[in-house]
Amino acid sequence: MRPLARRLPAARVLVAALWAGALWVLGYIAAPAVFGVVSGPLAGDIVGAFLRRLAWISIACALLMLVLVRVSPDLEKGRRRYLNLLVLAMLACALVMFVGLQPAMASLREAAGPAGVRASPLWTQFAVMHGVSQLFHLIEGVLAAVLVVKSR
């Protein structure tokens, strides 16, 4: 195997770890910390900005992983297909949140006005969307753990 090809398994693990780490840190450390320190709509604005950046990190990591899997001579066909499906499932979760749920939730927050969505009749709809978003984040995080383990 050529020297570059020998480094591809490590590169796959590195990208998977970066993606997983970003998901876990934002979802389970940064977002709760922001809501614990900052109150009201400002906390949502800050976490929303984090989530937009996370979406772009997810897209970049997915594209890079798909390329790394494709050019890796150490992967047999079945394993390559498994890793591709795993990456595509994670990307789908990220896109559902980035393109669907986050803009819809931002619209609800804006429609609620300065008092915030909690004080609005839109709260129930927002809470349901937030719960669905958390579920997609959890699924993507679990898939990320599998990707880290299976990338080598």
Give a description of the structure.
- The chain is mostly helical.
- Helices cover 86% and strands 0% of the residues.
- It has helices at residues 3-37, 41-71, 77-112, 123-150.
- The chain is elongated, with a radius of gyration of 18 Å.
User: How many helices in DSSP terms?
Assistant: 4
Q: What is the first-to-last residue Cα distance? A: 16 Å
Whole-number radius of gyration?
Answer: 18 Å
Number of strands: 0
Kindly name the structural category. Answer: mainly alpha
User: Which spans have pLDDT < 50 for at least 5 consecutive residues?
Assistant: none
* Largest β-sheet summary: none
Give a quick summary of the entry.
The protein is an all-alpha fold and 152 residues long. It contains 4 helices and no strands.
Sum up the structure in keywords:
single chain, 152 residues, mainly alpha, 0% strand
In terms of topology, how is this protein built?
Layout: H1 3-37, H2 41-71, H3 77-112, H4 123-150
Helix pairs in contact: 1-2, 1-4, 2-3, 3-4
